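Why does residue order matter? Because the sequence determines the fold. Keep that principle in mind as you read this record.
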Amino acid sequence: MPGRPGADLAKKKNLMWKQGSKVGGENWLFFYPLLFYFIMPVINAGCQSPVAPKETEKTDSAKVRLVTLDPGHFHAALVQKSMSDGIDSNANVYAPEGPELRAHLDLIKQYNGRAEAPTHWVEKIYTGPDFLEKMISERKGNVIVMAGNNLRKTHYISKSVEAGLNVLADKPMAINVANFKELENDFSIAAQHKVLLYDIMTERSEITNLLQKELAQMPEVFGTLDSGSEKKPAVRIESVHYFYKFVSGKALTRPAWFFDPAQQGDAIADVGVHLIDLVQWACFPDAVIDYKKDIAIHDARIWPTPITLSQFAAVTKNDRFPSFLKPYLQRDTVLQTHGNGQINYTLKGVHIKLTARWEYKAPEGSGDTHYCLLRGSLANLEIKQGAGEYYKPTLYIIPLHDSKQYDDVLQKAVAKININYPGVAIERAGKTWRLVIPEKFKVGHEAHFAQVLQRYLRYLRTGQLPAWEVPDMIAKYYTATAALEMAGSNAK
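Structure:
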């Protein structure tokens, strides 16, 4: 990491002197930052060097120190729902004052105050209008967590990696083609500064997705992935999300901008990113994807989800539509939310049909749902989450040729799975097999954020991401934003 200019060091010295730091005199105060800038990067590869803390903060310089930047989505708080070894309990927040910041802090307070396994975060907050510049100049953390307004997110990412800071960002990191080009450059800048830019892909931690991937990589069970066709794709994947939902036991209040595609992003560029990621991760694990050669988008479309004013008010606590949503209003009473999108594309010659949808409220007893079908030469692997599954994700194995020999092969495969996932079994469901998964592995969406964080911490310790992660993230955001651009052209 390049050294800081002398003027910046002198400024830091003066600031620390004014704060009354007592570490051995003014001369030592001047050289103390140099210790961290030139020695700590060698010790803590992949993490930005910390500045000297105040005595009262008791910051461990070997730990990851989180900074949350402009939180506007509950995912920012879920990163801190549990404590993790190696992360300092002091966390800094830089954001404008307002309901989004208060909602974030309320969730952190809820986690600190719960009876079972309470957290012990100490949140240090800065709300000045120059919060972004202040975050960069103060450098109180070495991992910047972002989950909020997606219109600003790519810019925040750029400024952070340019400053030599690691970034853990909620999806999406880009919501249009211009964002994508900027993001692609950000990955190059991150590599130059030896910092890690990574997005939060929670769906990789969901147990049925994990086991579908495992079975797809067993040729004796799945065979090989079909190439399919546009009419009969080899991969069909779909998610349905709901605007009205509960988070950590309480009804979620969404900001009004969540319904603006210019700020939140269309469904394809938002939740669609999770689906694109799952396809790449499950069908081509550890493979480097070159978006310029491996991806072809054949068709894409978008269509709205109607939301009434009363529904909008229930979700946002606003009793009127703000002016920026006026272009999407029908008869001034119904919001035509950009809530749905579909892509037909090929990845390395495999035909994929991907659908991302939003509805207002889930049926009683259900929540966000996921569907995924992988077609193989020996069997299909299908995840369903409908009424027949009691709205719980369930994985089915559908042999193309049912036989006793195949049943024996499948039993042996399940025995292999039990090495890492003890207790997994299969049971007959007509001519198909249903995977029976112990409840201990069904930890739920909110717990997946801690699992992603642990994965990221491992990468920070080694100072690098797996070789395929960066090109595959670039390919993922290319697919989402290029498809959205095509869908927009088709709608005209």
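The chain has a mean pLDDT of 89.
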